[in-house]
Amino acid sequence: MSNNLKLPQRRTFRQQSTLFGLISGLLLLSACGSTSSSSAPPGTSAACIQAAGNSAVTFLADDGYQQDWDLLRPIFQDAGLPFVSAIVTNNLNKPGYTTLDEVKQLQAEGDEIVSHTVSHPDLNSLSDAELDVELKSSKAILEADGLTIKHLVYPMGDDSARVVAAASKYYQLGVEVGNGLNDPKALSLFHLHRVALGSYFDVIPSTQPHAPTNTLAYYKERVDEAVRTHQWLIYMVHSSGPGFDAEQLSNLKATVEYAKSQNTKVTTLSGGYEIAQKLAACR
């Protein structure tokens, strides 16, 4: 009889101990959760952001210059990272530009090829029929040669509602000139912004003097901004543009290595878009 009386008491003690442990665990999880959320922007999940890649950096070279093959390709190969080459189809195989075989090799090595139209015109100056030819034919020509083409870079960054409407029939993304980084939570797929690196340097409207935008320090600051704010940074590179000298080539190499060392993903346009989609889904 005495044993029968003690047994319920032991069960009650164990139940109380289990309950105490559960409450303590919940309190600990709550504390950890509040600590984690305090290090992330309001309304976001630090774990979700890191799982998505935290941020993205893309290096996009315009026009398909021969220097893309001779100068840029070795930099990205040494770093084990991809870059993007925007091809004007009329310039393929011409002196000063990459050949079709070189462009195919870039894609085979993991770089991404995108359209930069047939003849690099001001798209806004074209008739509807001419506009359609520039957009449709450039994609068709490259695809007929075995290349995968998903995205468009507007010549001179010129676009409009009419140009975007035409481009959206053939492409997933459209890339402009300037205007900084791309916020995944407010991403405009046919108005993607870029930061100039090495040539056609950024112009920052201001009534006050500002730091130059053609320095390694400026390029690194943009990477830091992307990492800090969980955005997508797309660099605009013209390897044969005005100002793209040995110093700027060195700056490009240093920026590539710096981005590689940070909490971000150096990737293609397609890869950047995938990361941006994941970041946009984080709450």
Describe this structure in words.
With 283 residues, the chain is an alpha/beta fold. It is built from nine helices and eight strands. Strands 1, 2, 3, 4, 5, 6, 7 and 8 form an eight-stranded parallel sheet that branches. Helix 7 links the parallel strand 6 and strand 7. The longest helix is centred in the first third of the chain and has 37 residues. It is globular and about 45 Å long. The N and C termini lie far apart (59 Å).
Output the helix-strand order: HHEHEHEHEHEEHEHEH
Residue-averaged pLDDT: 87
Overall structural class, as computed from helix and strand content, comes to alpha/beta
Can you tell me the overall shape? globular
Distance between the termini: 59 Å
* Helix count, DSSP H or I runs of 4 or more residues: 9
Describe the sheet with the most strands.
Answer: 8 strands, parallel
**Helix amount:** 40-55%
Q: Return Rg in Å.
A: 26 Å
Q: List how many beta strands DSSP finds.
A: 8
* Amount of beta strand: 5-15%
Taking pLDDT < 50 over at least 5 consecutive residues as the criterion, the unreliable ranges are 1-40
Quick rundown:
The chain is built from nine helices and eight strands. By secondary structure, it is α/β, with parallel strands linked by helices. Mean pLDDT is about 85; it is low at about 1-40.
